[in-house]
Amino acid sequence: MKKIHNFSAGPAMLPKEVLMEAKNNFCNWEKNGFSIMEISHRSHFFLKVVEEIEINIRELLNIPNNYQVLFCPGGARGQFSAIPMNLLNKNDKADYIDSGYWSHLAAIESSKYCYSNIIDVKKKEEKRSILSMKNWGISDNSVYIHYCPNETISGIAIYEQPNFYGKTIICDFSSFIFSKVIDIKKYSLIYASSQKNIGPAGMTIVIIIDDLIKKAQKITPSILNYKILLKNRSMFNTPVTFSWYLSGLVFKWIKKRGGVKNIELLNQKKAKYLYSVIDSSNIYINDIHPKNRSITNVVFKLQGINLEKKFLIESEKEGFLFLKNHYIEGGIRASIYNSMSVKSVKSLAEFMVFFEKRYG
Ligand SMILES: *Cc1c(COP(=O)(O)O)cnc(C)c1O
Questions:
Q1: Backbone conformation region of residue 74, classed left if phi is above 0, alpha if psi is from -120 to 50, else beta
Q2: Would you give the DSSP letter of residue 160?
Q3: Do 17-256 and 259-359 show the same overall fold?
Q4: Mean pLDDT (whole number) for 291-315
Q5: For atom 10 of ligand 1, which residue has the closest CA?
Q6: How far apart are CA 296 and CA 139, in angstroms?
Q7: Closest approach atom of ligand 1 to CA 151
């Protein structure tokens, strides 16, 4: 069988070692005579798995003790609603930074539950970029600032560190979490769904500072209420146990690879391969300013729609799969999260050079 390189944006590829370990334990988990999916989430077997997951997340992200780690149902989009419902009253104001598709949707959803002040920070010059934070025009009376450090579809990232004089910062880290070192103390709440850079879909991580777990709006569904989730160890309803288990294997895998710091170096190396091919080419175009280029989602277009079609056909023949970007953005997107090897990215870079020579 020919080698497959899976560039899916999410659900995304998982480390082969993790899949093999899950496979070997699928029917008979750790020789206990049952599958991990066949036991109660309240059994001591599963509670041990959960405990280990939390310890590993805390260690990998260096989470201070005054932060809680919650696992929520409903994906990142569930948090688009949960955050304003848990933190605000209907008339409270929040600043929602619009840097692309996901942060825009978060803003729209929040406006059902609060006064959402949407701030467009997209700079549309010859190169697309994001306004620097000092020019965001944050309101004096907003309760928090919400933004998305990596817009997964447009491949636009914000690397600037938040510094808003004590303002509460909330971030959607869905496609960035565990891909680079972050200083948790700079944020009051960060959240991420699992299917990009963690494990299979289903587990949503919320890392929240204690002070923010207060009184949710009355209408807040109990399964999205942080206080109730905390009281119930994130098991108010039956959690997606298999997703938690598999994500747990991924956390161990990251640890084995030297933690997030080491992973970040590999991710930068991978991104560099692709951006340097793009920048020295006559057919591949990435119109994002280098300071805002994503290290996990590399997007580009080709001169002419026919050449783009040809690229997708020829790359697929060579085993480079799922490179077509979301229809709202068009073009090509190589999602190169943690599980994607440097070798696979190098192969894609080489293919791109070859393709340009042949068809460019
Ligand atoms: C994928 C993604 C989402 C949506 O995640 P769901 O789990 O489908 O709700 C939200 N924000 C970002 C940045 C994403 O990449």
A1: left
A2: S
A3: no
A4: 95
A5: 76
A6: 31
A7: 13
In ligand 1, the atom with minimum distance to the C-alpha of 76 is 9
Q: Which residue has the tokens 């929602």?
A: 96
Architecture of domain 17-256: 3-Layer(aba) Sandwich (3.40)
Domain range summary for the chain, segments of one domain joined by +: 17-256, 259-359
Fold of 259-359: Aspartate Aminotransferase, domain 1 (3.90.1150)
Return mean pLDDT, the chain. Answer: 97
Ligand 1 pocket, residue 72 CB under 6 Å: no
What pLDDT score was predicted for residue 303? 87
Q: How far is CA 250 from CA 65, 75, 190, 207, 226, in A?
A: 23, 18, 19, 18, 25
The active-site residue out of 136, 172, 301, 324 is 172
CB of residue 174 inside a 6 A radius of ligand 1: yes
196 carries an active-site annotation: yes
- Which of 122, 180, 196, 324 is catalytic? The answer is 196
Please report which confidence band the pLDDT of residue 124 belongs to, taking 50, 70 and 90 as the band edges: confident
Active-site annotation holder among 29, 95, 98, 102: 102
- Catalytic residue status for 102: yes
DSSP E strand stretches across 121-260: 122-124, 128-130, 144-147, 150-151, 156-157, 168-172, 189-193, 204-209
Indicate whether this model's pTM tops 0.90. yes
Residues of the chain above pLDDT 70, percent: 100
Reported confidence tier of residue 166, pLDDT bands at 50, 70, 90: confident
